Amino acid sequence: MRQALGGFAVMPRTAAPALADAQAVQGLLAHWREVLVAIGYLDPAAPKKLMPRLNQALNRARVTDEEVHILRGIARRSRATPVSSRTARNRRHAYTGASLSAAIIMFSRLREDIACIRERDPAARSSWEVLTCYPGLHALVLHRWAHACWGLGLRWLGRFISHLGRFVTGIEIHPGATIGHRVFIDHGMGVVIGETAEIGDDCTIYQGVTLGGTRLEKGAKRHPTLAAA
What we know:
Oligomer: single chain
Structural class: mainly alpha
Shape: globular
Radius of gyration: 20 Å
Largest sheet: 3 strands, parallel
Strand order of the largest sheet: 3-6-9
Distance between the termini: 24 Å
Number of strands: 10
Helix content: 40-55%
Order of helices and strands: EEHHHHHHHEEEEEEEE
């Protein structure tokens, strides 16, 4: 239902999805490790960097309970492959499963982003208009890919995606920055968000805002933290 506020009709804010706790994320990682071992992709006697990197990426992504449930379902489906078919094809299945998981999370966040923009911007007339004409949304989508690359150790690729996002949208977001759910960058031209900046859920950032460095020490927290009031 719509509520009248100062002569304007506004939509009530929808409830935020529950974030998965650390125990649920660790359980998901353990499940994925068992599946990757079962299909012959991981050798339990030879530790690799994949699982720690997945752990870091999931923690930074701040997945919800629903997304954890979806990823567990993909893992169960991957494990249903007969053990006798452990060939090079199994590695392709693992990559496909991981890519599908990332795509599901991205699509879920995209729907959430579009909904929050339509809620906060009276000029937004349709979801299609938001998807195609809002540079703040485009910058966030590109940042998620850049941030994922950064978390997996692909630092140059993360910076390059960030650079493309700056060129296309006029918004510069370092791939190391942490951005929460339902963040709305309104207009966005000239916005700069630094490497160690943290932006919480439900924040709105207007054009020309700079979350720049306040210190020069490498490895230190150098940029501001922003939280919704």
